[in-house]
Amino acid sequence: MKIGKLSGEMLEQLVLSTIEFRREDVLVHAGLGEDCAVIDFGDEVCLVTSDPITGALEGMGELAVHVACNDLAANGGTPVGVQVVLLLPEQTSLEQVHRIMEDIQHTAAHLGVEVVGGHTEITSKVVDPIVSITAIGRAPKGRYVTSKGAKVGDDILITKGVGIEATAILARDFGHRLPFTIDAHEIAGFTKQLSVVAEGLVAAEHGVHAMHDITEGGLLGAVREICYASRVGAEIREADVAIPQLTKAICEHFELDPLKLLSSGSMLIVAPEGQALIKKLQAIAIPAFAVGKVTAGDHPVLIRTTGERVPIVSHVEDELWRFFNMN
Q1: Quick check: pTM over 0.90?
Q2: What distance in Å separates the CA atoms of residue 67 and residue 83, rounded to the nearest whole number?
Q3: pLDDT score at 290
């Protein structure tokens, strides 16, 4: 099997199809394209999500916290706590364990999130450290957001730009293979953008129809999951997609497609009044861009700068995983 997430088809067939029992107080169940479970807690809902970090070497504790809390933000939730599972190979030093946990604690505290427990284990079953985090959040019962609400005619927005997380990983772990130098300050500029909690809360209050943090499969993968969950189509305009200059340079050197690149730090937002939301986000210093529209149909179409229309009808393999497979 290929490295990376299971395709949507395999996930449905092998995983989701096995889940039969459902409780009435679970408002959003496991499903393709859904970032979190949503559980009825009276006037509020509890949001729960889990995510591992397996592709990064440096800063994996920081990435793990952001990726998990971003899932809560995509449902309009405020993160409250995280549980941490560390699976570590036998050669792991005590200093490495301490450094990972310091990164987790520092990042969580910056977000106002408590580390509430977890599990730490040295095991011969892994060759590199794996960090998996379960994040718990809360939201008003009438204001949580899912991936299923996109409607024909809605604007499709992204915040900041694509490729943020992958750029930080490639710059830190593979910078020595680039024909130009990237200093630590420039990398830090990308890691500081990894959270989408602020824009998630603003968007939820604005009254958006759907959100999805842009992770594996990049922008095209996230749009496809929204389309699948909402039973709609979409048109994405390549010319309007914001791509940071460093991301462009790295992608050109390694021959990667930035629209299919791991992009934690960018939120995909589907809203009926996109320009009004863009202004609200800009007011809190978060750049946002309209990149497309929701259409009738059942899959997204990428409109290339050349005018070519490219249907996105199958699983989008993340370019970072493709890069790892080649290297």
Answers
A1: yes
A2: 13
A3: 98
